[in-house]
Design a protein that fits this description.
101 residues, globular, Anti-sigma factor antagonist, STAS_dom, membrane, alpha/beta, 28% strand, single chain
Length: 101
């Protein structure tokens, strides 16, 4: 349901490994999604099986690009492994995280 006067978020579903071999494609997909985002871009990570340093770098780059466009980049569907990775790299406070209710 969309609240009158607001815009529905753009949701980008990611899957598989996010590593140095996939970051170029990931950045391209996120930039494409940002072209259609007005207020919020949600990255659904529920099907991501691995995220390496290159993946974290791509997420940080995406966040910076989103901010420069006035868009909030939020993460959703964090697996326990992804949540732990963000915690140990001290990035958990850098991204809004949406949880299921």
């Amino acid at each position: 349901m969309t609240v009158p006067g607001t815009t529905a978020p753009t949701i980008l579903h990611l899957s598989g490994d996010i590593d140095v071999s996939t970051t170029t494609d990931l950045r391209r997909r996120i930039l494409g999604a940002l072209d259609h985002s007005v207020e919020v871009l949600i990255l659904d990570l529920s099907a991501v099986t691995f995220c390496g340093a290159g993946g974290l770098g791509a997420l940080l780059h995406a966040q910076a690009r989103a901010r420069s466009r006035g868009v909030t980049l939020a993460l959703a569907g964090l697996t326990p492994q992804m949540a732990r990775l963000l915690e140990i790299t001290e990035l958990s406070d850098r991204f809004p995280v949406l949880t299921e209710r």
